[in-house]
Amino acid sequence: MSIWEYANPVKFMKTSSMLLPWVTGLTVICLVVGLIWGFFFTPEATNFGSTVKVIYVHVPSAMMAINIWVMMLVTSLIWLIRRHHVSALAAKAAAPIGMVMTLIALITGAVWGQPMWGTWWEWDPRLTSFLILFLFYLGYMALWEAIDNPDTAADLTGVLCLVGSVFALLSRYAVNFWNQGLHQGATLSLDKEENISDVYWFPLLICLAGFVLLFVTLLLLRTRTEIRARRLKALEQRERMA
Amino acid sequence: MTMLSVDNLAVTRGGLAVLEGLSFGLDAGHALVLRGPNGIGKTTLLRTLAGLQPALHGSISMPPESMAYAGHSDGLKSTLTVTENLDFWASVYGTDSIEGALDRMNLRGLTERPAMSLSAGQKRRLGLARLLVTGRPVWVLDEPTVSLDAASVALFADAVRAHLAQGGAALMATHIDLGIPEAAILDLAPFKAKPPEQGGISGAFDEAFI
Amino acid sequence: MLALLSRDLKLAIRAGGGFGLGLAFFLIVVTLVPFGVGPEGGILARIAPGILWLGSLLACLLSLDRIFALDFEDGSLDLLATAPVPLEGVVTMKALAHWITTGLPLVVAAPVFGVLLHLEGAAYQWLVISLLLGTPALSVLGTFGAALTVGLKRGGLLLSLLVLPLYVPTLIFGAELIRRGAEGMATQVPLLMLGGITTAVIAVVPFASAAAIRVNLR
Q: Which of A168, A139, A173, A130 is nearest to C145 (CA)?
């Protein structure tokens, strides 16, 4: 029994339909508990006021925005190297989720930045990098949409994802060099002294888990849709040839 | 001498197998014409043979660097002259002279004309001259006489005969008469791929979804 | 390989506007900017490095979709792919031809446009160096974008969407190099980064472009 068995669309459909209700349930529980705890049962921070609570959406979405791109990179590589269909379709299915996560991170960031920095937008390295990441998501999705042949589209978007990853990383450093910013450093690493206090940390942890689960749920759903669409296309094509 | 041999070949288009179980050989001095209705996979087969796309199954063997491929269009640059077009391909293929090709394709009087001012027949002749310039023995031609009048078809047939007489070989896909009656004909219809559940070849990309 | 380069250059010249079009576009951008931001020399001098880089970037973008589209339409790309030349070499030569017809004229003409934008005296050498180092990367990355979109009917807009984000690092270091040069600051870091990016791009990206072409011809 190897993990590659799940690369078979039929097997994937079977397993994912079994998993979906559980993952969906867990997602709902985590998000409801985490967000309610975070929004209503945490104290107001001394130097942030109530605006700190946007953290429960901002940080998880920002984290997912980056991790989803990494996941797309991995699945693209699996597709390019091992030619597993589900892998390419999962990358395709993940892109819009990642794009929306990036957008949420940008918007909640703006909402948070307005009271804190007095501006909706600042050309700060982190903000700018996310804007660039957003552009990469757009380009990736547009390329998928533009190409009719699914194999060709999977190959080309895979290559774009590889090249894009390198340049997204490079842009991150270039942007850092270009403007040292306002945005605070990462306050969530486990070894740092100046981490946020436990009162905020536990609900945030649950929210993070909730966002990861939300991504998994949406990914499973969207991949299942892509597989069905692909199956339909294959059946149609066979009909035309027969 | 066998210039090209194909064994149990299966080719795909758009993720599904179109032809399977195809085996044939092509000897020096011979021409083979592939026939079959539209959509049977003639172009797909030729592109697979030319190495532009991978085969699903089976083997293709030929001496190295022996094939020259010509698709639906001639790949001519309309603003370059006849000589410039041929010179370019001669240097790509590392052959020295285009003089022979100019003579044999009756292009002597046109050398300084830009390709855009040539008639359809003259363009096709230039496309064939490109094949001569490559110096490759096996010609793989896709619909070589499309858009040609009777006189130009005859000229094309002569060119192919001359090539065969010099020990070359030609594989041509067409659904109209090429004017080369001595060429063997291979009808592709019997090799049409069947769905895997009816005993056809499996492993094509999209089948995992069905 | 060289035959391909000379063929592409010949085609660019014969098609008319091969060299001139990008330059004319560059001139228009430089002319329009003062209308947009006002004629004060101080402001223009400050934004000149960025404008000059943006202008070259857009001028370069203009002709990208033609790199492979014409060869794809008339079938020569098929023939080149079956010819005894590596496709990686073909795309490199295409990028080089693109650079000679658009990048190089921009490098040569940029100081003149710098005068129009009141660029500071110390910056001219850095302007030329930064464009000379940076524009090859623009052409090679553009070739990659063109390779991805070669089979598409309306690839032009998509091409810009794909390629422009890839230009971000080059633009940042290129413009920064001129800015630092103009202010007499240390230029070593952006200079090395710009050169490094261009070198790496030239070394690696043609493989991706060739892979994309192969997929598109399949």
A: A139
Does C208 contact chain A (CB < 8 Å)? yes
- What ranges do the domains of chain A cover? 25-44+53-181+198-241
Task: Locate the chain A residue with the closest alpha carbon to B204.
Answer: A234
> Sorting pLDDT into bands at 50, 70 and 90, what band is B60?
confident
The region of weakest confidence among B6-15, B191-200, C153-162, C173-182 is B191-200
Question: Is residue C60 within 8 Å of residue C106, measured between CB atoms?
Answer: yes
Q: Which residue does chain A place closest to C161, by CA atoms?
A: A139
Residues from chain C contacting residue B50 (CB–CB below 8 Å): 78, 82
Instruction: Output the six-digit token pair for C123.
Output: 């910056």
Specify the residue for token string 């975070």. Answer: A38
* CB-CB neighbours of B177 under 10 Å: 11
Q: 3-state class of B55 per DSSP?
A: coil
Chain A contact set for C211 (CB, 8 A): 155, 159
Write down which chains contact chain A via at least 3 CB pairs under 8 A. Answer: B, C
Give me the residue spans of the domains in chain B. Answer: 2-66+137-209, 75-135
CB A55 within 8 A of CB A200: yes
Return d(Cα B101, Cα B125) in angstroms, integer: 10
> Quick check: A227 contacting B, CB < 8 Å?
yes
C-beta atoms surrounding B83 within 10 Å? 16
Fold of B2-66+137-209: Rossmann fold (3.40.50)
Share of chain B above pLDDT 90, in %: 0
Nearest to B18 by CA among B75, B74, B51, B57: B57
pTM, to two decimals: 0.89
**From the CA of B14, how many Å to the nearest CA of chain A?**
7
User: Closest Cα partner for B34 from B148, B168, B176, B162?
Assistant: B176
The strand pair at B67-70 and B57-61 is best described as unpaired
ipTM over 0.95: no
Of B54, B75, B93, which is closest to C84 when you measure between CB atoms?
Answer: B93
- CB B75, CB C4: distance < 8 Å: no
Question: Tokens in use for C8?
Answer: 């592409």
